[in-house]
Model the fold of this input.
Amino acid sequence: MSEPQNSLDLLGYRRIVAEMYAAVRNDGNDARTWSRWRTDRDELFAMHPQSPLSTEARGSFVGLPYFPYDPAWRIEATVERSEPDQIKIGHRGSGETGFARFGRVRFETPQGEAQLSLFWLAGYGGGLFLPFRDATSGTDTYEGGRYLLDTVKGADLGHEDDRIVLDFNYSYHPSCVHDDRWSCPLAPPENWLSIDVRAGERL
Done:
């Protein structure tokens, strides 16, 4: 397949993802909306040419596994802004991506207090990126962590003023978990949580 066609496929994939998250923001973050998001995501993985799965894996794909939906893991947190601090976040295998740490969020969870740093993609146009690792990483979830927000790719749960939605039911594995052809930035140590986040995608 030609590179322009690959690019158009990726453009279409990202548009679909953005529409899925727009539906979450518009329809309310509840179990019914989450179930529809899961179904739509499974269809993307199974059918789309830009699926994170290999062509071979799509043939036996029956859906992504998740922890049960838990409304207690939907949290609204206030962003504590800070002066941007340029950092590099390493990838699985080789490579790294430049980000600016621009703030953090502190919040209460069903497992206790937590805090996470917020990152802004340094490339053209930017985008909010929020990866995390927790006590399930390496057992029930991928050892390198999961993503909660990645707005350059459409994963945006919403915000109002300095309040941002953190719904861990929508946390998901990076593409490199599903196939080695992908290279993905992983959660940096400052975003390693000591608590169990038993919400979102699992292995």
Observations:
- The two ends are 31 Å apart (CA to CA).
- The mean pLDDT is 94.
- The longest strand covers residues 74-90.
- The chain has three helices and seven strands.
